[in-house]
Amino acid sequence: MNHLVEYLIRGIPIGCVFALVAVGIVLTYKTSGVLNLAFGAQAYVSAATFYVLRDPARTNWPMVPALIVSVLLLAPALGWLLDRVLYRHLRTAPPVAKLVTSLGLLVAIPELVKLDFLLGATQKPRPPGIATESIVLTLGNIRLDGNQVVTIVAAAVSVGGLTLLFRATNLGLQMRAVVESPRMTELAGVNADAVGTFSWMLSSFFAGLAGVLLAPLFGQLNSLDYLTLLVAALAAAAFGRLVSIPVAVAGGLGLGFAQNLAAGYLNDLLPEVLATSIRQALPFLALFLVLLLLPGIRRTKESTDPLAGVDPPPPAPVAAVRSRGLTIATRVTGAVAVGGGTLVTATLLDPFWLRIVTQGVILAVILLSVLVVTGLAGQISLCQASFAAIGALITAHLASRMGMSVLLAIAIGAAATAIVGALVALPALRIGGIHLALATLAFAVMFETVIMPIDSVNGGSRQLRVPRPLLFGIDFASDKAFFVLTVACLCLAAGAVLLLKYGTTGRFLDAVRGSEIAAASIGISPGKAKIVAFAISAAIAGFGGGLLASFEKQMGSTTYQGNFSFVVGLVWVVLVITLGSRTVQGAVNAGLSFMLFPQLLEKGLHLSGSVAQTIAFALFGLGAMTYAKHPEGIIDAQTRRAVNAIMRRLRRTRVGTPDSDPEGKSPTVVAPTSVSAADLWGSP
Amino acid sequence: MNSADGTPAALLEVRDLTASYGPFKAVFGVSFSVPGGRATALLGPNGAGKTTVARAISGLISPERGHIWFNGTDIAGQRAYRIARLGIAHATEGRSVFASLTVEENLSLAFRRNAKRAALAAKLASAYDLFPRLGERRSQLAGTLSGGEQRMLSLARVLVDPPKLLVVDELSLGLAPVIVSEVYEKLALIKTQGTTLLIIEQYVEQALKIADDAVVMNRGEVVYAGPPTTADELASHFLIGS
Lengths: 684, 242
Prior knowledge:
The complex is a heterodimer. Chain A has three domains: 2-295, ABC transporter involved in vitamin B12 uptake, BtuC (Orthogonal Bundle), CATH 1.10.3470; 319-329 and 633-684, no CATH class; 349-566, no CATH class. Chain A has 27 helices and eight strands. Chain A has helices at residues 2-32, 39-54, 63-85, 95-115, 146-168, 170-180, 182-187, 192-214, 223-239, 245-269, 272-293, 324-348, 351-376, 384-401, 406-424, 433-451, 455-458, 479-502, 504-514, 516-521, 526-552, 557-563, 566-579, 584-605, 609-623, 634-655, 677-680; strands spanning 136-139, 142-145, 319-320, 464-465, 470-471, 474-475, 554-555, 669-670. In chain A, strand 5 and strand 6 form a beta hairpin. The longest helix of chain A has 31 residues, at 2-32. By secondary structure, chain B is of the alpha/beta class. Chain B contains nine helices and ten strands. A six-stranded mixed sheet of chain B has the order 6-7-8-3-9-10, sandwiched between helices. In chain B, strands 2-1-4-5 form a four-stranded antiparallel sheet, covered by helices on one side. The longest helix of chain B has 16 residues, at 177-192. Chain B is globular. Chain B starts with 11 loop residues before the first strand and ends with a helix.
């Protein structure tokens, strides 16, 4: 019993950490309708500024001015900027558009901070806390240091203050009203834009405060740690259905207690490695379970603006109907481009670029999985990199430990990954949209922080050896031969995805994406359709992962860090969605640009590798800001524009008069009921 | 009817109003006026553009062309909250309530701007007096109310705190006939207290009982403006061009 109390008290500081972050997430969601995954990035900005200002080797400011600049000035300014430039225009956008935007920011902001000359060095000193180390509070045999005390006080004050704001003040009421319907709030005489801006400034201030307060938790200041902490704290926020601040705080404390209880009791019962893994996995498991089981979370679907009809209807993504000649011409061009590109790459490029292009082609295979899950099923999955890693690991184990043929191992890996994908998608039976995205994010972070470090998974300190395949007597050991094989694999995978898209399953998914209720009313099970989509998508990702392992000739912790880390996976998803998640072109272009663009920057502008990578990722992240305007993707938007222009010119020359159809009655542009295969392979 | 300096004498004067939703034009050069202290009925079949006119008046949409004079100032294209502060209240059609707020919070949001804390309680009380059903459900989320109750809530927000000009869109839609009569009694009362009314209504007979003037729209244009004659006579304008 004594132990129990001690474990509980020990859980308070870490519980308050979770609570503080969870409150920040709830605050943003409640006042802006955005599940702000960039919260961690905003926290990182303030924390980095604070410690640069405080750093004795640099400016060496005293504590209070540094705190004022980084938390009281910089953080709200960042919130103001985000609102003015981005979120103000997204206030009535669908939740997924907001999620994609925040994903883009999550990728871009830390990269931009890294670019900052102040933080040029990658090694940052261990961040000191706000409080000096000398303040120590002792409760029996438990010591709390100054920073822990400050965190506890801050959590208590913020929960009190924010609860008061929302329960008792007019401003709090207005902030909640603006999220639901800015227009109706304006009809009550409230300036919705001003209230919305204030909401962002407040939540950004909160992110900055949390960032500075929590920095001493980490050995080095690192945006990734903030993101991991954010995902862990999401469990607490989800427990309060993302809207209840008191429940989120209770959830945070509960997580803290549970972690310490697990640490206390499991160590005696289980082997140490397992006990530690379970303790670390706890927040992610909790998030997954909350999404899977918590009653009522399904009902927390975003309430819609009753005045949404005031907006002009979104422009229908028009499908261009073109003449048969043009369709054949574009298809031939596409085939020639693929064939010619393959030939040129295989014969003319030097070994370095050949490797890069091969990686791009393999990544394109993996990214076809995003086409299935996002493009067809309309869900956002943030764990595609983990699926690819699972495929790679299974391939590596089967090939190196059991001496299985590589191609067979890749196939088995893909099948096994499909099962994992179906399991991860289980919450899809109840939920969709941002909640399902959260479940996948929880899985990705858990895989990286808990499962991947286990020795029997990653193959230990030495990497697992994976051979190149041998098929029909042809040896694909050379890079050139392997490149041809990957192109063949890409064509195979793309063909499979197209068959899926235009087959029954694709139609089912189209229906579910359009309206789950309407789909259910004609006998389609939306949950089943989504799980099938996840399984197929995971299989494709696993297949690509196995291919990549074979290309790299190895798989293990190092390969994982370089290719499959969950942040890399986030960049993939952002890039595909930006370029176009509905088309094969989008996936192929995303794969190639992810690999080629940083290298081109590095070689073309003579930058160092890490700077080129940083610039590329920042640009990829910022690219996601176009999503709200072009949900169909940049490539598709440009293609349609080009095709329409060509069609107009063709018609003009045929009729002999300048565009004689200003009212658009001609069938050049029709409703998007049928999108022909030509649109997928259309001229770029 | 314009005074010497060119500003209109009527409280609300809509002139050459053209409005559209993206590429879709809804209203083509509409002009009419609403004299102060009177009730004007804006009638017409589905798709006539009545709601669009109401939205342009309250600032929910920005008109493409034309002027809307209110009390001597041109409010066309101004932000909705500024127009609301000038004294125009717009009860939008359908279930326009904040589903995630409670009934009481919905009402407070509307009343707080003009009322201090003490006056707020009195206004809430009179709202519950007008619609006792809302009083029973004051701490319930507005999204869980029935359709008729949500309609009551959105009307209570504008009836209790009478503005200078009240625009009511599709007043009787979704309300029980008994309640409709009560609401019309309340409208007549606030009219005597000095509120000007612009009532958009499908239920023509009911609207004509209270109206001092009538405007009939069809296909985005005004086809009749004048005294409220009988419903049968006005109905002939509904058929023009259709």
